[in-house]
């Protein structure tokens, strides 16, 4: 895991240097380079995390009925990370308004993911209360 993290941080550092050197001459190339680096970093980070997610999923699958309670928080976490990454990329290029809209869309998606479990909990509580 440490080796992958060092590779990721090295790629980011090298890309940052390249972006700083070409930003003044070619802003659009700097933006594309940043997007390419971001995509590579995301893929490498997912590759680093997936074995641990698979292990956790296997443990939750052994516990009957617990898998749905594992999947939803992981989806929420993934959406939060991706949304934050996109918003930060937008802010890096002076697109604060677009960053705010990305964050709003991410929050809406997270809300939508949280509604079904909330409804289930409320239904159980209402049934328990006899309503």
Essential attributes:
single chain; 131 residues; mainly alpha; 2 domains; 4 helices
Outline the structure in words.
The protein has 131 residues and is mostly helical. It folds into 2 domains: 1-48; 63-131. It has 4 helices and no strands. The protein has helices at 2-22, 27-62, 67-92, 96-129. α3 (67-92) runs antiparallel to α4. The mean pLDDT is 88.
Report a brief summary of the structure.
With 131 residues, the chain is mainly alpha-helical. The protein has 4 helices and no strands.
Output the number of helix runs: 4
Rg (C-alpha, Å): 20 Å
Fraction of residues in helices? over 70%
Number of domains: 2
Secondary structure blueprint with pairings:
Elements: H1 2-22, H2 27-62, H3 67-92, H4 96-129
Helix pairs in contact: 1-2, 2-3, 3-4
